[in-house]
Specification:
Layout: H1 35-40, H2 58-85, E1 92-97, H3 98-105, E2 110-114, E3 117-126, E4 129-134, E5 149-150, E6 157-158, E7 165-166, E8 172-174, E9 183-189, E10 192-201
Antiparallel strand pairs: 1-10, 2-3, 3-4, 5-6, 6-7, 7-8, 9-10
Length: 236
Amino acid sequence: MGGVRGDRDDPRLDQPDQRFTLPFDAADPRYAGSEEASREHRRELVPAEGPGLHPHSRAARILRIGVPAVFFAGVLLVVAVFFVGLDPGSTVEVVGEEAAVRAAVIDRPRRVCLNDQNPCAWLTLFDDRLLAFNTSGPIRDEYGRMGVSWCASSGYFGANSTGSRYDPAGRVVRGPAPRGMDRFDLRVRDGRVLIDFRSLTTGLQAHRVDEVVPPAGQHCDEIPFDREADLDLSAG
């Protein structure tokens, strides 16, 4: 009366006083169907494939190899940029033969630039010694190729933007400059004058200046534009 009639071979049929309910799913192992029916409804389990690539697919293998390769290639590229691509090259400017350079600056200083660009130096002769003063003064407003100019009448260097004045030795004469003109490293090798624009010596602090070189003539209230400032040894 109650329950569902099952297979006649079901051992539970020998116990009519006990109720039981057969499962509705024929693939359930508790299903009291025939052995043949069980084989027909037997489930076959297959590997589940969720969203995305299968871990054993060809595309997944390519990604496992390609992503690390791209990463390491990027690292190598960054290293190459910093050690090769951004290499500024030589900072040493070969000016020329010492005798020719001395002859060119014996009457006045001449301007020499690294690869015809900034930074630049005033190449001058003081106490029979060649010096290369930075054309950029110690104050930000004095920076640049023409930051510090040269006054022909007094023989002083000066910055029109700030009013700072420096004697032929690069020491502060007057103005707001906290120190004298900085000097690039200059040396003579195999008879040629070389300026290293990476090596810089700061000028003497203004408060430590005991004496200055007197001006050769009248001071320049406004230093005029110098059209003959750049050193040219081709004529010699």
